[in-house]
Amino acid sequence: PQVVVEGRFTLTHGSPRHPIWEYIIYTSTARVNFEHFGTRYCLVGHTHTPGIFRLTPETEGSGPICEQIALDSGQPVKLGPERLIVNPGSVGQPRDGASRAS
Question: Which of 25, 40, 42, 58 could form a disulfide bond with 10, CB atoms 3.0-4.6 angstroms apart?
């Protein structure tokens, strides 16, 4: 299968919208993809680059906001009530040219 759902997690290679080929690099792409899975968390790959996108609920009449969480602090990101799209990075085929795991 191209998309697997296990408990609170959706797993897919590219994105829940286009599981094989879509890259989730920008918040605009992530925002649209939140509409294509119903679990709290979605794990993706394909870009080989770590990243986390968070969808915050509506506040004071504005719609939900999608934002990218900064990963440069070195601190773990705790799973909370917000929905997340998470790319853990990869080992192999480095996109930044460095041969270590990303």
Answer: 42
